[in-house]
């Protein structure tokens, strides 16, 4: 019995030793066992996504109630049962073996291994390293170099220009199938680097180039309280990365099976992920929606229009809201020294895959260089910080341009001198018309003010005469009270329901009511059998109007409908109201 207990204890100790953050040579993890990063942020083990029965080796958040997988090893070759094991070899590789001891997945490494071990870091990075060497430059292999659909803090999203390593996201096929789906999200190195979402080989979204502060097509990307971001671009590397401002925040960037690049943040209070931001925000983010030389304006109808000096290539298609053919120049371009440039402001820069970048030139030099090259169609600063620097030239057609209300960018498109002159005349004419309109408007406004002043004085004089006449002849007195119609009072008091009845005075009942704008009122309904006629009605109004006290209610108006006569007061639930209405 003691031997059995000792054996159980030994196996328990072995189980605990497996549940740390490191695996050594020939150590295995079987289905049902996991290792956890030192800080308890991430866990590695076997799992089945959603309704699938297939088994995969993956990494997920340890502290998140809803299992959220951020990386999958054998995403293309799943296990069909729970017989799989994960193992570290003496060659410094991680392998997944199935029930027949066949390798179905392996990490790759060309570096020599000495005392290799695998460690799950608190960043979510699974690394293969030699002994205790924690220098990331010396890692034999790391999962951060081979992301799946998720970008985590600290990951490099882009290319190593020396080794050719390309770190990009590829979507899951479905939510229960982590195999490579239809969409990829990667940094395109052509011209000025930009991020592209592709469905197969077809571009569906483009971030625009980095401008020193953000990607041109990400106006919403700005300093925030959740994460810091950066774009590294030098001879060795080009990549986007982000780091957490607060280490307790859990956030991830995911490429969904539908091709949306979205950032989610975990909220402990609700126990759920919330969408923090999305690369694609509206229809204008659909790649080249308006075709070449078309510009998308999301708040206009239709959304697409041709740039100045251009017209639809096929007007009939544009009439059918098919803008994909884009626009052509209204006047064919002839390359001449007299050519100039038309400035566009507040836009997403055109596709830069056919562009040229020089970071040392200024804007004036950039314009001169573009003008001398007949193939150059547009130019701008590559970096907008500090007043602008660098030179970005476009060659060929311009596409995927959209307008922004904020954080857009300027660029300059090549135009013939005759067109620029025509634009200048139109602009001058518009300015002249605007100036004339301002003058006419000013005169009209002054005239209206004077007319209003005269009318006001006239009305005041008439009121004085009426008040004077009222003192001499009460029958001709005009109270000038706001007049409420009966339907308004019926709706406000619920047809004079007993529930709204406040009480009954000498000349009739009083009801509480509420107008459609939410204002509470008290309605004194004069009894049809009472002797209070028009004189009493007027006297009460005159009496109230002469009393000015903060504890007395305000008379809002009256209602006269046939034999019905009512006074409408501002409702105040205090004794002053009761005394005044019932007294």
Automatic annotation (TrEMBL):
- E.C. no: 2.7.11.1
> Which molecular function GO terms apply here?
ATP binding; protein serine/threonine kinase activity
Gene Ontology terms describing biological process: recognition of pollen
Q: Where is the Bulb-type lectin domain?
A: 20-141
A Pfam family found in this protein is S_locus_glycop
In this protein, which residues make up the domain named Apple?
A: 335-416
Membrane spanning stretches:
437-460
Q: Which reaction does it catalyse?
A: L-threonyl-[protein] + ATP = O-phospho-L-threonyl-[protein] + ADP + H(+); L-seryl-[protein] + ATP = O-phospho-L-seryl-[protein] + ADP + H(+)
Instruction: Cite the entry's keywords alphabetically.
Output: ATP-binding, Disulfide bond, Glycoprotein, Kinase, Membrane, Nucleotide-binding, Phosphoprotein, Receptor, Serine/threonine-protein kinase, Signal, Transferase, Transmembrane, Transmembrane helix
Spell out the SMART domains in the cross-references. B_lectin, PAN_AP
The stretch of residues making up the signal peptide is 1-19
Residue ranges occupied by any Protein kinase domain in the UniProt entry: 496-583
Q: What is this protein called?
A: non-specific serine/threonine protein kinase
